[in-house]
Every structure is written in structure tokens, then in C-alpha cells.
């Protein structure tokens, strides 16, 4: 009788949430994820990402077209095939770096206002009176945006690598592994942005994520320089920045799989801070895969305690 009374006195929406169990929670998360993905399409977010990526691919493809003609001419001049591979690897590497920045910024802009903007407009208050937990809402939105970012990254990077293969016969290897690692970078940014959007205003969260992304790359550069001059302190600073946000670490790990390191070094990249001379460990990859999950778990806890 006591148990029945407690159930009867519970709010209707809370009782229905509890009654749904894991299956009901999964259904609600899937619904929110689908609605979030559809919202990204309706707000032209996906279209904007596609247009921006297509513009970059057109510019990069044009550059590769002219570069391929020069490579062909140098080939007739008895340039060793190995040196052609070196130049092709360098050209692909130069194209991948700005592309990774585009993907990262897309992740920030797509997720930085996921919760905070709806709180500011009052839209979220109407959603949360329905039979749905705050955690389910946060996880669903994360999955919807994450799906969009993963598809965009895979299509964009595959097209870029395909252009390099077609026009300059770039010497690539382990493409699926490299693509998977490149996808972890925007997902790490997504986790950070979704954590921030549960507590911070949209503008503050955007500044935080953009700054963290910049620090991640600067830390990677510091680690490369420290590795080159055998400065352990600089290397440790780079590792710390990767722990704060492993986006750059995953980019460097992907390059290790995609392009033979010797070709980059012989092409003159050995003295460049952009060249991944020091590769992140397998433990860093595991950490990067767990990173968004950890941040979303923290964000869910903070969001559940927030007074709306």
C-alpha cells in the first residue's frame, strides 16, 4: 500500500519516465537525436558545412591540378619516382591541416548553443515538462550533432584524400584507420562544447571551445619542437594540452597512419612545427575515444543539478 501510494503521488511525467526503463530511455534518446539532426538540416547547418567544404575542395583540387602538371614535367626530366612521392605526400599534408581546422570549427559552431540557446529562449522549459530526463535530452542532442559531424568529417576527408590520390597519386596507407582517428578530433570538441553549454552562456562557451582548440594545436607544436630539441619540459607541456583537449593529438596520429613519416621529413618537413615528428601513443587514442563520453557524463550531472 505504501509503495502504491508513493507511485500514485509521484508526478505523472516522472512515473512514466521510470516505467519506461532502459528501453524507454533509449527510445527517447533516439527521438531527440533524430530531431536534433533534422533541426541541423532545417537551420541550414548541414548545407553550410557542405558548401564550405565543397569550396575548400574546389580550391585544393585546382591547386593539385596545377601541381600535378609540374610533377609530370619534372618526371619527364628524370626526377626519381621517390621524390615525386615525397612531394605528393607534402601536398596532401598541406591540404589536411586546414581541412582539420574547418572540421573542428564546424564542431564548435554546431554544438556550442545546443542547450544554452534553448534555455535563453525558454524553449527548453516546455520540452522538460514532458516525460524526458535532462540526461536523455543532453545525450540525444549529443548523438544527433555527433552523427552530423562524423558524416561530414568522413565525407570531407575522404573527398580530400581521393583528390590527392586521383590528381597526384599521393602515397597513402591505412585510410580507414586514419579517417577514424580524424573523426575523434571533432567528437572531442563536441564533448567539450556540450559540457560547456549545460552551464555557460553561448558566447562564453564558444570562446572557451575556440580557445581550447587553439591551445590544443599550440600545445602540439610545442611538443613537436620539444621532441626535436630533446626538451622534456616542452614535451610534457604538449602532452598536458592534449589531455585537456586531444584534438591535435588525434590529427597527428591520423597523419602517422595515413602518410609515411619518412616522406614528410625528406620533403623538408623535419624542421616544421606542423610535421608530426612525435606520434601520440595508443593510450592517447583510448583516452580520446573516452574523452567525449566522460565530458558528457559530467555535463549530464551538472545539467541535472542546474536550477532552471
Keywords for this entry:
0% strand; 83% helix
Give a verbal description of the structure.
- With 308 residues, the chain is an all-alpha fold.
- 83% of the residues lie in helices and 0% in strands.
- It contains 13 helices and no strands.
- Helix 7 (134-168) runs antiparallel to helix 8 (175-197), helix 8 crosses helix 9 and helix 9 packs antiparallel against helix 10 (232-244).
- It is globular and about 70 Å long.
- Residues 1-19 and 266-274 have low confidence and may be disordered.
In terms of DSSP E residues, the strand content is: under 5%
Structural class: mainly alpha
Shape: globular
Number of strands: 0
List the helices and strands and how they pair.
Blueprint: H1 2-9, H2 12-42, H3 45-76, H4 81-111, H5 116-121, H6 123-128, H7 134-168, H8 175-197, H9 202-229, H10 232-244, H11 247-258, H12 261-266, H13 282-305
Gist of the model:
With 308 residues, this protein is mainly α. It has 13 helices and no strands.
